[in-house]
Structures
1.
Amino acid sequence: MTTTETAAGVLPAMAEVPAAELRVAVLGVGMMGADHVARLYSRVSGARVVAVSDAAADRAAEVAAGVPGCRVLADPMTAIADPEVDAVVIATPGQFHHDQVLACIEQGKPVLCEKPLTMEAESSLAVVRAEDEYAARTGRRLVQIGFMRRFDPEYAELRGLIASGGLGEPLLVHCAHRNAAVPPHFTSQMMITDSVVHEVDVARFLLDEEITAVTVLRPRATRHAVAGQSDPLLVLFETEGGRMVDVECFVSTGVGYEVRTEVVAEDGVAVIGLDTGLVRQSRASAGAVRSGTITPSFKERFGRAYDIQVQRWVDAARRGGIDGPGVWDGYAAAAVGEAGVAALESGRRTEVRMAAR
Ligand code: ISE
């Protein structure tokens, strides 16, 4: 059997892409969902958005109006069950994911679910078990999780370099995750579950092993922090193989979007996310200056990654599978996130409790 190296690891090669277009329903058309609708409409081939659903009816109507032939279905469960819907993108708030993903599995429909898979490790594990049971019956996986960084060309190259042995054994990973600003409801817990969750997935993706313990430190907070928030945070992951990953999470820098990852290995160091772009040197009243532009938000920084992710998901769904992180990755992220929140609250090193696969 031939195999291919994918964002999920090594998978058996799948059959040719069938001719029929994938008819997609997008649930939740806030910032991320609306972005996926636009991407499916204008940049992704082999799929079309046939339905949208959102708790805000006017928002759903506005998004649907921009896509010929797209219906508004008020109830997301109706959209999942609709016979003219082949596959589903879930971009609703996290508390709805559990029921919606389970409904997709029940209907046998491929689904791309934005993170989190569900709100707790236990409910994520229930989804893992449900999809495992479906896969045992049909030989097909249905659920892909929207950890888009795996599709970013820089992250993919870094993983390839590590996997090739070109750097030697990785020992440490240093990560910076900085946002210019976050909304007022964004708590310190959300810095772990909404922001650092990406580094959880990146660490697992790059190092190919599980995270076993988390420590969270609260340095002096910026005066720009959302009220009551400890911003920045310093997070330390320990892995099964004794490696360590540190993450500076700083979500009110007021500057721009900076996501940097540096792998320190036995035979070298590799870094991505320098965001250098064009660097300009010019005269200024106080002397010559060197300047460039900092990417404003994750939509620009990871725009290409989102496009690649959705295209590969569509191609895989049309062949009857997934091509990217799956339910186990969603569960692992939830389990590490739970340990992270406990570590934040207790100030103590906290072990990750994960079930056996
Ligand atoms: C947001 O939800 C994301 O997923 C972004 O990638 C992340 O950088 C940001 O901190 C989160 O709030």
2.
Amino acid sequence: MSNYLFTPAVPSLPIEGSQQQFPIHRVYCVGRNYADHAREMGHDPDREPPFFFNKHPDSLISGGQDFPYPTATSDVHHEIELVVALKSGGTNIPVDEAMQHVFGYAVGLDMTRRDIQAIAKSKGHPWSTAKAFDHAAPCTALVPASKIGHPQKGQIHLDINGVRKQTGDLSSMIWSIPETIAHLSRLFELKAGDVIFTGTPSGVGPVSRGDFLEGEVEGVAKLKLRVV
Ligand code: MN
């Protein structure tokens, strides 16, 4: 019997090939981690320190669930990303020890209210309402690194209604996965259950109700969903 006033929901992601679920602690996202996307958003992709924002753990949706077009926006963008899930964590993790904390990988969408984000940027306001809305993080099941290893290159792409919109390669990340984990661990204590959206290549753009989105990271997974 629990001592909670009500039963807390535990956000989780399925694990490919397992009956178990991966419980989510936090959702971290890296901004502008591919030079071509940084340029399309009007920034110089010099190797400035990485910057981060968060989504809520219960923003994750999985299993091919429909993506409900959010309220309070008329310009929702897709950002296809490789997602890294941690099985352990710590603080001040050295780059050369970072990968031992990785459980596995998924393909995710960092859905963004671009109109609200543009206003926030212009006013110096935080990005929460642009990035952390309900259902803002569609994601595939996690694929354990014990099955696929640690992808360092491979195509990442997104199609809408069969038309290619985003294309890139994991090898074009400005900050590698171990570097990202090391950086984050100096800002937060990382824990088992943390997932990190590692940034998107160029070609971001709007989605509409009825669109069918199909994204893939080569060697990891395919994500399919409909915007409703
Ligand atoms: Mn993103």
